[in-house]
Amino acid sequence: MQPIKQFMQDYPGQIKSKLPQVGTTIFTVMSQLAAENNAINLSQGFPDFESDKALIKMVSDAMAKGMNQYAPMAGLMALREQIAIKTEKLYGVTYNPDTEITVTAGGTQAIFTAITAIIKEGDEVIIFTPAYDCYGPAIELNGGKPMYVQLFAPEYKIDWNHVKKLISQRTKMIIINTPHNPTGKIVTKNDMVQLEKIVQNTDIIIISDEVYEHIIFDKQKHQSASKFPHLAERSFIISSFGKTFHNTGWKMGYCLAPSNLMKEFRKAHQFIVFSVNTPIQYALSEYLKNENNYLELSSFYQQKRDFFVNQIKDSKFKIIPSQGTYFQLLSYADISNEKDTDFAIFLTKKHKIASIPVSVFYHKNTDEKVLRFCFAKKEETLKYAADILNKIV
Ligand SMILES: Cc1ncc(COP(=O)(O)O)c(C=O)c1O
């Protein structure tokens, strides 16, 4: 058999990568390393337990009933209506399901679509690092320029003066994320008020990545951009059903935005994906009717966080408190001086536990000797992981 001939094989310089810096993501690398080394995998952010059987049945019932063709471009109206009800109940804001809510193939597609709809060549977008890895490449693919504000361990507080200084005529967008991946921190009401002041009287648009909106601990309140009128009027708010209902592989989410922004969003959305999974939309529209299905998520994950943290409290790792998401940061500064990427590989190979080094979420690979562990796992998995961590000195 002949291997397929590569396009321009003899002239490799002819293909000018649009993302020359981008390689395989750390999540793939660490998960592969975990598999090769038979290590417990707390690196990638997904549960090792099943989604509710009742929800799975709703999906198969919808399929059996023949709900298998294209959904409307913006999503099934029944689901958009339930999203509107949930948003109003939680944040006291009304989004019109007809013109202000779009169902997407997960949070990532919603973020990419919002950036694509707005960002043009030369536009600057402020992002806070460490950051979830899809923001930068999506900005660059659209000709924009990411402008970075660094957050530092252990508080990861936003320096709003720094943000103010970065703003220029070219600033088109600011992307915030709360609860925050990878740090597990949340923004305060005061942070949102500061942001509101900064963007007032500008034409800056906000993406508020709120995919962990239902995973927030210690009775804290989620500060959705929808609650702040001067932010809501200029925000794309992103949520993910995968995070909320333990089925990240279904890739379902949604975007909220005022109708003038949503109009632009849908122009891009219809050519990126057109519409998303019909039977799952039917199922979610039913499942959302029981508010406990999302209201109980915080206490569900808080128990897991507390269990994990309690198990490792006497280890040599320093715990950086997690306020939301299903991530726990641990500092190993008292154990080793190695680079965090090297230390994460060492832990995977030698101690059979995989994590994500936080430096990979920084644009300059800032290394503060911190690793991210995902605790969206069964108790037995967390106990097993804790036993390993306790032995590392
Ligand atoms: C902060 C953040 N935003 C967005 C996403 C993407 O969500 P989805 O899996 O629904 O595309 C993730 C997933 O890990 C995330 O952590």
Characterization of the model:
The chain has 393 residues and is α/β, with parallel strands linked by helices. It folds into two domains: 12-51 and 295-390, Aspartate Aminotransferase, domain 1, CATH 3.90.1150.10; 68-292, Type I PLP-dependent aspartate aminotransferase-like (Major domain) (Aspartate Aminotransferase, domain 2). 38% of the residues lie in helices and 15% in strands. The chain has 15 helices and 13 strands. The strands form three sheets. The protein has a seven-stranded mixed β-sheet, sandwiched between helices. A four-stranded antiparallel β-sheet has the order 9-10-13-12. The chain has a two-stranded parallel sheet with strand order 1-11. It is globular and about 55 Å long. The model has no long low-confidence stretch (mean pLDDT 96). The structure holds pyridoxal-5'-phosphate. Pyridoxal-5'-phosphate binds at residues 45, 106-108, 132, 177, 181, 209, 211, 240, 242, 248, 251, 253.
What would a concise description of this structure say?
This protein has 393 residues and is an alpha/beta fold. The chain is 38% helix and 15% strand. The protein folds into two domains: 12-51 and 295-390, Aspartate Aminotransferase, domain 1, CATH 3.90.1150; 68-292, Type I PLP-dependent aspartate aminotransferase-like (Major domain) (Aspartate Aminotransferase, domain 2, 3-Layer(aba) Sandwich).
